[in-house]
Amino acid sequence: MNAPPFPRWLAPRLPFFYGWIILACVCCAGLSRQGGAVATLSVFVAPMTAEFGWSRTAISGAVSLGGILAAILSPKLGPILDRRGARLVLCLAILGTGIADMLLSLTVSLTMFYVLFCVARLNFAGPFDLGIYGAVNNWFVSRRILANAIATVGSMSGLVLLPMIASLAMAASGWRAGWFAIGVTVLLVGFVPVFLLMVRRPEDLGLRPDGGLPPALDPAAPLRPEPAFTRAEALRTRSFWLLSLFTLFAYPVQAGVSLHQAPFLIERGLSPEAAGAVVSYCSLMSGIAGFGFGFLPRFMTVRLKLAAVGVLLGIATVLYGPVSGAGSAYLAATFFGLGIGGLLVMLPVAWADYFGRRSYGAIRGIALTVQVLAQAVGPVLSGVLRDATGGYETSLLCFGVLAGLSALAALLTGPPGKA
Fold first, then answer.
1. Helices 302-320/393-412 angle, 10° precision
2. Radius of gyration, CA atoms only, the chain
3. Domain interval for residue 336
4. In a domain, 216, yes or no
5. Domain count within the chain
6. pTM, 2 dp
7. pLDDT in tens, 69-86
């Protein structure tokens, strides 16, 4: 049995499916995940570069290095997720992120910043992603899009709350207090529910995905047929590589704009407080979009929803260009948030729907290598072009092109067939 004692005792006594408990745990972990998010780091860029004299390229490099480390780790972590489940993976990620964030309050050098933030970023890009969406996609099949949407809303709540918590602490006691407050929040919200309540798969509790008894005990109950690809089989399909291509184009936009959003808005005349409010609003829109994608009509296939994500991101990059005040900033952040919300929901759903639950961790672990490397490129590209040109206009143009290419790649995808 892979289930800890307390869930084995609790599950039969509940009047509802235990998967909803899993989903609540995932939402708590998703909030904690944002301790390593680029949007959270974004509110620290201006005060830390001002105090230490670092360039935007230098501070962006920590995001990229953390992503590279996650790319190395994820293929090895995926099979562990399939065997041991999300509980171990998420508990270690939450502890590592919370402690690293708290220690960032003691930063005295760029090297120290890199070591600590890379820990948080590595966890964000690899273990958290695998653990959160691995758990959701193991427990839900027919309700998978809705469950992923709820999980994304839980994660986006962290992107709304953590920058606000950091900003309040920074206003009272400086940026060091901001990092400490984030670390404490990560540990308090995430660790206890995941440690006590997380279970690998519904079969470990004598259940099946979406609720009910296993087919052996209730053979008349319908169960949505699932694909069951191994990692080797998935790598031989066209769908795997097209989804990877979509990822390669979309994620530099997500990470590159997110990290530099607050400093960009400050350069365009917004106060730090107003820029932080726009970042939080953008995260709120991501949560709304994530939930909204769960209710899009079923005739819209996965490929169409992914293409819509690319279009939304492209519109956002165009709208950020002429930003000159709060109104235009909020308009651009609306489209960017909608695109990010759709991206976070639909890409894990696509991997699970196309390739199944059996080897989700192993398959997704390989795909995450592409994702985190793409995320690593975005912030550095934006930082280098800003330092070279004195503004973000060139990087926004590059991101607009990448967003358009992601929409095209999405339209070419489709469910795989076994050879």
1. 170
2. 20
3. 16-207+229-412
4. no
5. 1
6. 0.81
7. 988 988 999 999 988 889
